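Practice problem 4.
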């Protein structure tokens, strides 16, 4: 019976010493007598009555033992150091965990590599427009050519070229008269009637030295292209009007007696009232004859006279200095 009572007393004591988290941190505060029992259970007898004064006395005893190396109470000084060490270990664990989870010292996403400025592609800033295609040389016109009856000698420019027969006629006027009328010193022509305004219409082959008003633009063979363009503009303005549309169709460099020469071909819109003419095929050639100014050759064939186009090849091929 005594053993049973002793067991029951031990159970009661164990029940009194067991404190749950809900009893300490729950929303309800235990009664005062229960608080004193809990205090005695945790801290032991003689540690105060559980009041605020008792708590203060207990911590005063603890603080009194910190820093004492000798004498009574060494056993009690171990407790505060253990508390501090546990706190330090806990702090280290928190820091390590923070670094491991990325909540301290970094972000969850890995750092992005710095963006580098991409270099511009080779050739950037330069024009990407395709290069202008070179024009073809003078075409070889198909058809029957007019017969060659001799040679036209242009003493003003030093140029010689074929005299054409068939429908072609040689203008017998003097070089001075021809220059005053047409701006050239020799002329072959095919008469094509009149337009509605009574003006004569012709196919032409004419030659002469570079006009003196264009002479400042010529300093040597390197200026051939420039003076050809200037001559084409002057002729267009004189015979077709400044507003006439001219389209360059061919361009070619060649040699005449070993000297440099160059030609350009155009289509010039040339609507003549009272005729069926809509455009002319026009060829200009500049030839270095060894004189101060090059010789200029001008050929014009209206589109109603396509049978005369092969004569262009005959004239160009026959040029001699």
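Answer key:
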């Amino acid at each position: 019976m005594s053993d049973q009572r002793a067991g029951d007393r031990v159970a009661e004591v164990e029940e009194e010493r067991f404190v749950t988290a809900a009893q300490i941190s729950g929303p309800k505060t235990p009664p005062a007598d229960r608080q004193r029992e809990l205090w005695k259970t945790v801290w032991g007898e003689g540690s105060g009555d559980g009041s605020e004064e008792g708590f203060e006395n207990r911590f005063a005893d603890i603080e009194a033992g910190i820093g004492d190396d000798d004498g009574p109470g060494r056993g009690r000084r171990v407790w505060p150091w253990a508390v501090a060490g546990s706190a330090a270990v806990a702090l280290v664990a928190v820091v390590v965990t923070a670094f491991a989870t990325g909540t301290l010292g970094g972000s969850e996403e890995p750092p992005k590599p710095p963006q580098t400025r991409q270099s511009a592609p080779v050739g950037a800033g330069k024009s990407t427009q395709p290069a202008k295609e070179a024009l073809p040389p003078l075409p070889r016109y198909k058809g029957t050519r007019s017969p060659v009856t001799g040679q036209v000698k242009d003493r003003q420019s030093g140029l010689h070229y074929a005299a054409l027969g068939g429908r072609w006629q040689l203008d017998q006027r003097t070089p001075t008269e021809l220059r005053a009328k047409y701006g050239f010193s020799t002329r072959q022509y095919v008469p094509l009637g009149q337009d509605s305004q009574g003006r004569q219409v012709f196919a032409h082959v004419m030659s002469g030295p570079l006009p003196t008003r264009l002479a400042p633009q010529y300093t040597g063979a390197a200026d051939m292209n420039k003076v050809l363009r200037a001559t084409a503009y002057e002729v267009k303005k004189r015979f077709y009007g400044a507003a006439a549309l001219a389209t360059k169709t061919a361009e070619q460099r060649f040699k005449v007696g070993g000297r440099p020469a160059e030609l350009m071909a155009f289509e010039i819109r040339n609507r003549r009232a009272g005729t069926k003419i809509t455009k002319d095929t026009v060829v200009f050639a500049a030839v270095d004859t060894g004189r101060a100014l090059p010789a200029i050759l001008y050929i014009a064939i209206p589109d109603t006279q396509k049978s005369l186009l092969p004569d262009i090849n005959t004239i160009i091929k026959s040029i001699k200095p």
